[in-house]
Model the fold of this input.
Amino acid sequence: MIQKGNFLLLDKSEFREWLKKQNVARPIEYLQVHHTYLPNYTTRRNQDPFKCLEGMRNSHLSQGWAATGQNISVLEDGRIAISLDRNLNRIPAGIKGFNSKCICVEIVADFNVGGDKITELQKESVVHLYACLAEKFNIPINTTHIVYHAWVSVTGERLSDYIPGRSSKTCPGTAFWGDGNTIAAANKNFIPQIKAEYQRLTNPVVKDEDQPMTKEEKLAFDELQATVKSLSKQLESLVNSKDVLKKGSQEQGSYIKKVDERVAKLESLNSLPAPPSYAQTAIDHFEKSYDKDGNQVLNTPDGRSKVFYDIATIMYRYLNK
Ligand SMILES: [Zn+2]
Done:
């Protein structure tokens, strides 16, 4: 950013921030588009930019104007010059009868057919400049609000298009932007490119994969990785425990089954519903025997076991030996 004489010279990259800081009290609805015709790329060769800018100012003053006509100029190298004597709060002298709600931008070149072929640097700067102005003043990006000088008559009447004979000038040039100075030409590339730049400025698309991790993000990511690793180990050990438990309960199950079988066998020994055949004679005998008080000798309210039958058999055989 260089300030000298009546101008402030900015790099393209400085303009948006500079513009954001400007307090503009007057209403802005239109952005004018001009080429300077003179100076142009030929006169600009090896010329100091401030000499060029002051030259334009002097030319305007010599016509009786109060100050430099335009608010902003764009040089062929892409640098942007602010007219300090025609700051944004001052109505420009750009298009006779059509200035009050305008900002006047002069692109330093001759864009008539056979004139200058716009440089990439100037092209990029111009697109960026109009996008920034549209953002700052909330101006719709279309041919109603971004106006070529050629779409206004000598009396300041807004025309429907560039109309040779009625338009006050060919400005910004019959080969402007490589497409010409008509409404259709503006809608072909110029307006869409400003829209795209506006979109880029106001809604920057950040692709995650393009962004390297910040220090904090890397730290958080490492922590997450460690947590996942630890959880995975815990899960593995839980699965192992489950297998161990399953095996243990299967073994217990089969042990209980065996014990059950042994208990059943023991129970069967303790209680026989009918006497074994070898004990039948003894049992028949004792069932018919009574003591001196008339009680049956066999009194077995808890059932009869194999041992009982064996003892009854032994007793019977002993009594009958
Ligand atoms: Zn013009």
In short: The longest strand covers residues 30-35. The pocket of zinc ion is lined by residues 34, 149, 169, 171 (CB under 6 Å).
